[in-house]
Amino acid sequence: MELTAGNPLRKPSTVIQPRKRLFELDLNEIWSYRELLYFLVWRDVLVRYKQTVIGISWAVLQPLLTMAIFAIIFGKLANIPSDGKPYPVFAFAALLPWNYFSQALSRSGTSLVGERNLITKIYFPRLLIPLAASVSPVVDLFFSFLVMVALMMWYGIIPTLGLLILPLFIVLALLTALAVGLWASALNVKYRDVGHTIPFLVQAWMYASPIAYPVSMIPEKWRLLYSLNPMVGVIEGFRWSMLGSERPDFLIIVVSSAVMTVMLIAGLLYFKRMEQDFADII
């Protein structure tokens, strides 16, 4: 029996068409597929620690070992100042957002190519893939934060009310990773060598961020230019909210956040522009 427009047995259908307007992001569609986002995040967490010897402990050992190396080389040998705080705590407070950012960027930058089988078989908002890759390292950040609390107790550092603002800086770190990851993932579909440049980008970016050294070491005339690095504001915000250190230059945080916002909007627009060709190119 042929189903017609007036036939009550006719099943609803969905027509999928590429978007033609530049600013038609349709972010409401992401909310409609929120269960898929949850599944992708949970799957990434399980796969990351499946068949590992020490499991989630990797989330703790990596920043701890890096902090120990920084404390010996930069804290003891180079005598880098730490804004009046014990250098191990000073460095670990910066490694928390940085390790999250580096993992989120590395995963999201290659996420589309890694999910090629899923992309070519079914339709869903492709933005979910780099978004899930950016969200999943939050689990590692949580366990590392517990170590940070233990270090603060060891050194007798009492948290201040600034700790209440910490979730804001976590969101800024997530959005920064997503902004760069959108560009990297979309470009990596067309140019596969982009995936090979991400580790170098992360390494260079680390030394361009105030992790092993404080922002106060940067000459004042260059600080505004230095704050164009969006991770500068995130790291300074983490240190201030957790360690109760001297109030940071909020102009640096504002400039870094503004740069992140521009990068995110531009990344979303570029990603949506390239989205319709992902299945054909990948």
What does this structure look like?
This protein has 282 residues and is mostly helical. It has one domain. Helix content is 66%, strand content 0%. The protein has 14 helices and no strands. It has helices spanning 28-32, 34-49, 58-77, 87-109, 111-114, 116-119, 128-135, 138-154, 166-190, 194-207, 220-226, 230-243, 250-275, 278-281. Helix 2 crosses helix 7 (128-135) and helix 12 packs across helix 13. The longest helix is centred in the C-terminal third of the chain and has 26 residues, at 250-275. The two termini are 40 Å apart. The model has no long low-confidence stretch (mean pLDDT 85).
State the gist of this model.
Helix content is 66%, strand content 0%. With 282 residues, it is an all-alpha fold. The chain has one domain (56-281).
Helix fraction? Answer: 55-70%
Sheet with the most strands? none
Q: Which overall shape is indicated by the principal axes computed on the Cα atoms?
A: globular
Count of individual domains = 1
Estimated structural class: mainly alpha
Element order: H for helix, E for strand: HHHHHHHHHHHHHH
Average pLDDT metric: 85
Counted beta strands:
0
Low-confidence stretches: none
Put simply, the count of helices is: 14
Distance between the termini: 40 Å
**Beta fraction:** under 5%
Radius of gyration using CA atoms only:
22 Å
List keywords for this structure.
282 residues, mainly alpha, 14 helices
